[in-house]
Amino acid sequence: MQFLRDHRVQLRLGIQGLLLTVITPLIICSIAG
């Protein structure tokens, strides 16, 4: 069960990182534009 929990946390962190990677440039572009 511990492995499952760690995997879920890792997955969530990965998704958050992906969202940051996608959204940050959009925010910068909208501010700069």
UniProtKB/TrEMBL annotation:
One of its GO terms (molecular function) is ATP binding. The chain crosses the membrane at residues 13-32. The keyword Transmembrane applies. Keywords: ATP-binding, Membrane, Nucleotide-binding, Transmembrane, Transmembrane helix. This is ATP-binding protein. The lineage of its organism: Bacteria, Bacillati, Cyanobacteriota, Cyanophyceae, Oscillatoriophycideae.
